[in-house]
Amino acid sequence: MRPGGVVARSAHAGHRETEGAPERGPEPARELVPERGPEPAPGLAPERDPGPAPEHDRERGSGTVLAVGLIGVVTAVLVAGLVITAVVVAGQRARTAADLSALAAAGRMVEGHDLAGACALAAELADRHEAEMTSCDVAPAATGSGAGAAPSVSTPVQVEVTRPVLGTPWTVRVTARAGGVPLDRG
Questions:
Q1: Residue 6, Cα to own-chain centre: how many angstroms?
Q2: CA-based Rg of the chain, rounded to a whole angstrom?
Q3: What is 65-178's CATH number, 3.90.1010, 3.30.70, 3.30.1300, 2.30.30?
């Protein structure tokens, strides 16, 4: 072995130069082959010198950052869409509950029941629709009757209903009016 960890090998397979051996005549040209170091442990790749970093290596990982950013934007848009959808659905359900409650109360009034009985039915219907009736009163009518006036068959009933928005601390508030139609007896 020569200094520097290089072994001289001849072009003939398996022939090595040894010191003190007799010469066999002219030898063919030799090539210098670097000697192998110790084998790496199983499962580990041998270390290699990456050399100077190319220009494109400075941008390595920028695709990952871009992908994470895009996922964040898409997630934010989806969450906003879900919240808007929840508000719209809660509003529609609250309108349905208010309309049905007002119609039921007005129907009771047309049948001749008092306002308390009509409002009790309206509260029950609102509850069946997962809403809460917050007010039930005689609505101001075009004929001049209003809150505190004696209700008649044609007096509209005004019902206010609130309903929670799913997944948020918000509530939707809706007011509905319904009343009987006066009969012309003439």
A1: 63
A2: 45
A3: 3.30.1300
Q: How many CB atoms lie under 10 A from the CB of residue 42?
A: 5
Q: Cα separations (Å) of 15 from 3, 9, 10, 32, 35?
A: 19, 7, 6, 13, 15
DSSP 117-128: HHHHHHHHHHHH
Over 50: is that where the pLDDT of 142 sits? no
**What are the boundaries of each domain within the chain?**
65-178
β-pairing, 132-138 vs 30-34, is unpaired
Identify the band that residue 97 occupies on the pLDDT scale cut at 50, 70 and 90: very high
Q: How far apart are CA 97 and CA 68, in angstroms?
A: 43
Query: Residue 171: which H helix or E strand, with range?
Result: strand 171-178
Residue percentage of the chain with pLDDT more than 70: 58
Distance separating alpha carbons of residues 134 and 33, to the nearest angstrom:
93
Q: Highest-confidence range of 99-108, 142-151, 153-162, by mean pLDDT? A: 99-108
